[in-house]
Amino acid sequence: MTKPSFFKVAAIGGTAAWLAVFALLPFLLILVVSFLARDPSSFVSPSFSLEGYATIADGAFLRIFLDSLAWAATTAAACLLLGYPFAYGLARLRTKRKNLFLLLIIIPFWTNSLIRTYALIFILKAQGLLNTLLLGLGLVDQPLEILYTDTAVLVGLIYTLLPFMILPLYSSIEKLDPRLLEAAKDLGAGRFRAFFAVSLPLTWPGILAGTMLTFLPALGMFYVADVLGGAKSLLIGNFIKNQFLTARDWPTGSAASVVLTGIMILLLLLYGGSGKGAPRKPEDIGA
Amino acid sequence: MALVYLFLYLPIVVLIVFSFNNSKYSTGWKGFSLRWYGELLSDTQLLDAALNSLTVASLSATCATILGTLAAWALHRYDFKAKKLFQTGLFIVIMSPDIVMGVSLLMLFVAVQLEPGFVTLLLAHITFSLPFVAVTVASRLAGFDKHVVEAAQDLGADEYETFRHVILPMVMPAVLAGWLLSFTLSLDDVIISFFVTGPGYEILPLRIYSMVKLGVKPVVNALCAIMVAATVVVVFASQILLKEKK
Predict the structure, then answer these.
(1) Which of A263, B6, B11, B99 is exposed most, by the fewest CB atoms within 10 A?
(2) For A157-211, what is each residue's pLDDT tens digit?
(3) What is the C-alpha separation between A64 and B200, in angstroms, rounded?
(4) How many CB atoms neighbour CB A265 within 10 A?
(5) B219 contacts chain A (CB < 8 A)
(6) What is the interface pTM, i.e. ipTM, of the complex?
(7) CB-closest option in A25, A115, A240 to B224
């Protein structure tokens, strides 16, 4: 080895410094602020306090928090139920058009989710497509009120996040060797048995990745609740946003952010512990 | 399967159809018209926001691509002490909830008294795009024959020259794909931008956000339709670039 070249130092140091200043430092800041006291004049006062955590340990936040977790879990579960058969079908397609079909999933994945959320209004509103259809078919007598309800928020979350579930599922199912399923069949396993004993365990990394990519954003996408929902603080994201911008209570907002990050770390550990925790490839996230 | 496509595309298609609707209220079809596209052209506030979005997206994509490519190369080429930490850092930035990144950057910028606006947006967008470029380029580097680097060094190239004249041309498709990726990420971001921008510098998604909250003008439909079309173009372009690796 020769002496470390300037280029090497610059390449490593430059990028590491960037991450340290704009990713690590801000997070440390949030951690520190979450343990400080509130000060209406300058956001925070430099004295140790557990006020922030006390506020979120209180009933009102706990309620939002648990509701929010339940919403995110429902979203992830619904995306999984919708996405798995779809991704399976897509991965097993034997046609030249397969890439086109895949591209059709990637397009919504990269389309501004606010715009997609907004587009849902056309479907869900009182005189929207869904109600027109239901009325026309005689299934309902008067328009259903879906928009500005919790249901609309849930539909919105599922709608915006579904591609984030499908893509990692697709890439893990794609890697699944069909011969393993044939082997299972030869050994006498039925379709169900083969699915639960072979497909499911082998595509587990995809399931976990998809769950993370839908569950975590679902907690934070405050604009979905703002645009489609009635209840204002349905999601942790709405709560955090309000603490920072409306209530100006930085310690509480920071404490909630720390908790949210804690959930992320927990999920990551679970993902890493699944045995296939190798660094992700860009395909897994749809790149 | 068709149902999932229907679910994903129906709202977008309806939105695009209604952007051509000649009606002041978006309920009911009043005939085909381009009037909202025309009105969009005279809406200077919206056009400014669009221009700002494009400026931030192209600048942040360029910076993120330079940094991300260097990061990918550093990880591929060198062994250093904090390598594992560095890799984990990139991964965590990808995974961390947008809202946490948004508020933490907000606090950083307030702490160093940086006026929220163009600069803060740019810094934030570079940060969240960087790891995506790094993984895109890294996956292309992973397939490389290490002997190429040795050959370059034997011929007398130093580290920079090796990178500049040997590696960079070889990873160019991934670098361009990374750029397009960051560009779309920047255009798409709502949450982080929401926290790090100020009233003086408005970008498109946030303008749309406030318009949607205040009551919708059909001109928003036209604007959204254009953004969807732009995304389609960028996605196709990046797919073509990434395909070359096969």
Answers:
(1) B6
(2) 999 999 999 999 998 998 888 888 888 888 888 888 888 888 888 888 889 889 9
(3) 33
(4) 12
(5) no
(6) 0.85
(7) A115
Question: How many residues would you count in chain A?
Answer: 287
- Dist. CA A148–CA A71, nearest whole Å: 16
The phi and psi torsions of A187 (rounded to 5 degrees) equal -85, 5
Q: How far is A21 from chain B (nearest CA, A)?
A: 9
Rounded alpha-carbon distances, angstroms, from residue A196 to A47, A184, A200, A273: 54, 11, 5, 20
Whether residue B119 lies within 8 A of chain A, CB to CB, comes out as no
Alpha-carbon separation of residue A236 from A123, A174, A256 (angstroms): 26, 35, 8
| Gap between the Cα atoms of B136 and B68, Å rounded | 9
| Residues sharing a CB contact under 8 Å with residue B131, sequence separation 6 or more, in sequence order | B68, B71, B90, B91, B93, B94
* Those residues with Cβ within 8 angstroms of residue B67's Cβ, 6 or more apart along the chain or in another chain: A14, A15, A18, B126, B130, B133
**Distance in angstroms (rounded) separating the CA atoms of residues B225 and B21:** 12
Determine contact: A228 vs chain B, CB below 8 A. Answer: no
Each residue's pLDDT tens digit, B121-173: 999 999 999 999 999 899 888 877 778 888 888 888 888 888 888 888 888 98
Note whether A217 and A4 are within 8 A (CB): no
Per-residue confidence (pLDDT) for residue A41, from 0 to 100: 67
> B-contacting residues of A 16-75, CB under 8 Å?
16, 18-19, 22-27, 29-30, 33, 43
Residue B229's nearest CA partner among B55, B20, B24 is: B20
Spatial distance between the Cα atoms of B138 and B71, rounded to a whole number of angstroms: 9
Res. A283 pLDDT band, cuts 50 70 90: very low
A98 vs chain B: nearest CA distance in angstroms?
A: 13
Other C-beta atoms closer than 10 Å to the C-beta of A10 total: 14
Q: What is the C-alpha separation between A117 and A157, in angstroms, rounded?
A: 8
Contact A259, A56 (CB under 8 A): yes
Q: Name chain B contacts of A120, Cβ cutoff 8 Å.
A: 11
Q: What is the pTM of this model?
A: 0.87
What's the Cα-to-Cα distance from A225 to each of A11, A160, A229, B75, B189, rounded to whole Å? 42, 12, 4, 40, 16
Q: Do B231 and A107 touch (CB under 8 A)?
A: yes
CA distances, A112 to each of A79, A115, A117, B15 (Å): 19, 5, 9, 13
